[in-house]
Design goal:
Layout: H1 2-9, H2 18-39, H3 41-52, H4 56-84, H5 87-105, H6 111-125, H7 128-139, H8 145-177, H9 188-207, H10 229-240, H11 245-251, H12 254-278, H13 287-312, H14 314-320, H15 324-354, H16 359-389, H17 395-405, H18 408-415, H19 420-435, H20 438-447, H21 454-483, H22 488-493, H23 499-518, H24 520-526
Helix pairs in contact: 2-5, 2-7, 2-8, 2-9, 3-15, 4-6, 4-10, 4-13, 4-21, 5-6, 5-7, 5-9, 7-8, 7-21, 8-9, 8-16, 8-20, 10-11, 11-12, 12-13, 13-14, 13-21, 14-24, 15-16, 15-17, 15-19, 15-20, 15-21, 15-23, 16-17, 16-19, 17-20, 17-23, 18-19, 20-21
Amino acid sequence: MVENEKVQRATGQDAVPTYSWYALGVLVLVYMLNFIDRQILSILANDIKADLGLTDADLGFLYGTAFAVFYALFGIPLGRLADSWHRVRLMTIGLTLWSAMTALSGFARNGATLTIARIGVGVGEATASPSAYSLISDYFPARLRATALAIYSSGLYIGGGLSLLIGALVVEQWNAAYPGGGPLNLVGWQAAFLVVGIPGILLAIWVVSLREPVRGALEGKPTPPDPAPFKGFFAEMLTVIPPFTLIGAAKRGSAALLINLAVAAVSLFVAYVLTIVLGTGSGVISTISNEWLFLAVGYYAVFCWAASLRHRDLPAFKLIWGSPAFLATVVGYSAVAFMSYATSYWAAPFAERVFEVPKSELGFLIGAPAAVAGFLGVILGGRVADYLQERFESGRVWIVLFGLLAPVVPMILAFTAESSAVFYIFAFVAQFCGSSALGGAGAITQTLVLPRMRATATATFFLGTTLIGLALGPYLAGYVSSQTGDDLGTGVLATFVIIPIGLIALLYAIKSVPEALRTVEARAAEAGERAS
């Protein structure tokens, strides 16, 4: 294809082909819908809590842990598949799945059913970013990669903001028209899930038309198609999905099996202890038990996958799990996500309870500004990250550090505010500051690996943002709220406990990333990577 050839030649200072920008626009739409489907739970939280008899801890679990663990687990084999198969087709399948599961959430009659639907959304959405990050890295040259990834990431914030607007509109209009329940006995929050889920199935028809670029062509390292793409995918499934992980460990020898069993036992024991110490939960979902059990399974599965990757693909393991610079960047950004996810999820329920404002006002005065703040923050942050990277070896890391520290004061002012106007203003500022880190962090992880490893690196990057940020941040806020008389302000500010960890990780990254960037190919070759 002529356009595809132009994409391959867009190196150095050459102009980026128009088709690359078109494809990026479509990917932004996908990511917008991704976060509309994910974030709509925020504006619906208080209604779901009342109808299903849940606690704030339950709501944090539904939004964070139930979604995040399966998003992370399936992100690993799906990331591997995105590195070896047709990325556009993979994203199309995932979009169809998560949209259907969002729509099915509208038929939930209890917390358990809604949990299952959220798990399905997590599995489907796990296809999106590994595929998109890899595609964008082959559509755009390195000099514009953080900018392009930031534009893609803007879909996160636009979608999150639109979810509040759409959810508020649907709930209020539906409940006004059908006070006792409408068709199929659905109430407003259930109808909202249907309204945002069904369009994704239609969008999938557009997405499948995108052209697949040649991997690594922009770096002059075109990677031929994998002749057996699904072989690696199914191998990854066996190494990451319990209890099949025991089979993968046994294939590596008795010592590997014993270590695997020991890690499984320790994970379950820690989950049991945390359950005993923190209680059994009072909600319908039995949140505490599920929280720590889900996380135990998630962290155990990640260990299994990393151990298997070391055995099967030592170069990829060395550049990802064996790279302190890579891991420090992931942990540092995960600390940003820990606070950001909690803030974005609980902002609407907090304002609705504390200031007693209607949903329509929340949609316009939280949702719309959040979309603008996130869009501006991620775009400007990505552009500044690229600008600083051209002048400083750790330029992009400094933007991630800014994203960690800058939201602290606005968050305090927002969640201790005595008027809704003050809350809206500082919630906007906090969103703007926190969103600035994503483009730079994503670009760092993409440049610390070889082209063939990018989707796998992206899956690893999102392990941190999900198993640390999404799985724990919103849940911690909800749990603290449940323990303090439904005080969501105290719950959200409790997420500051993550700041020292993120600060240490990013200060280390500032020192280690430059050397890691200079030695990518050397370290891969040392681990056995063959030259192209």
